[in-house]
Amino acid sequence: MNKITRSWIVNGEPREAEFAPVRRLLDVLREDLGLKGTKEGCGEGECGACTVIVNGQPVLACLMAAGQVEDQAEIVTVEGLEKTETGRILQQAYIEKGAAQCGFCIPGMIVSSYALLEQHAHPDAGLIRESHAGNICRCTGYEKIVEAIQTAAERRAGNTGS
Amino acid sequence: MSTKAKASKRIPRVGQGVARLDADEKVRGLAEYADDLQVPDAWYGYIVRSPVSHGRLRALTLDPDYDWSRIVVVTPDDIPGENIVDMMGRDMPFIAHDEIQYRGEPIALVAAPTRKQAREAAAHVRADIEELPPLLTLGEMIDRYKRDPSELHELCAQTIRKGDAERALEEAELVVEGEYRAGHQEQLYIEPQGMVAVPEKDGSVFIHGSMQCPYFINPELCVTLDLPPEKIRVKQSAVGGAFGGKEEFPTLLAGYCALLALKAKRPVKIIYDRHQDILYSTKRHPVWSRYRTGLDKDGTIRALCVEYVLDGGAYTTLSPVVMYRGILHAAMGYRCDHVWVDGYVFRTNTFPSGAFRGFGAPQAVWGLESHVDDLAKACGMTPHEFRLRNALREGDVTPTGGVLRHSVGSPAVLTQTVERSGFVEKLSRCSHGRVSDGKWYGIGMSFFAHGAGFTGDGEARFKAKVALDLEPGEDGWPVVLVRASSTEMGQGTFTILPQVAADGLCIDLNRVRNPYPDTKYVPNSGPTVASRTAMVVGSTVYGAAQKMKKQLEEYVTREFTGGQAVQLVDGQFLTADEKVAMTFEEAATHHFQHRGPLRVYDQFRLPDYLQWDQKNFVGDAYPSYSWGCNVAEVEVDPRTLEVNVLKVTGVYDIGKVLNPVLAKGQLEGGLVQALGYAVMEKIEIKDGLFDASRMQTYVIPTTLDIPEFDLDFVEFPYEFAVPGAKGVGEIPMNGLGPAIANAVEQATGVRMRELPITPETLFAAMTRGASGPLLRTGTA
Amino acid sequence: MSPVSTLKTFEDIDCTFPKTLQEALELMADEKTRGVPLAGGTDLMVQWESGALPMPERVINVKSIPELREISEADNEVVIGGSVTHMELRQSSAVRRAVPSLAEAAATIGGFQIQIMGTLAGSVANASPAGDLAPSLLITDGTVTLAGVRGEREVKLTEFWKGYREIDRQPDELIVRFRLPRLPEGHYESWRKLGARKAQAISKVMGSSRGRMKDGVVSCFKVALGSIAPTAVRLYDVEQWIVGQPIHDETLKEAEQRVADAVKPIGDIRSTAEYRKWVSGRLVRLFLEELAARSG
Question: Are residues B222 and B90 in the same domain?
Answer without folding.
Answer: yes
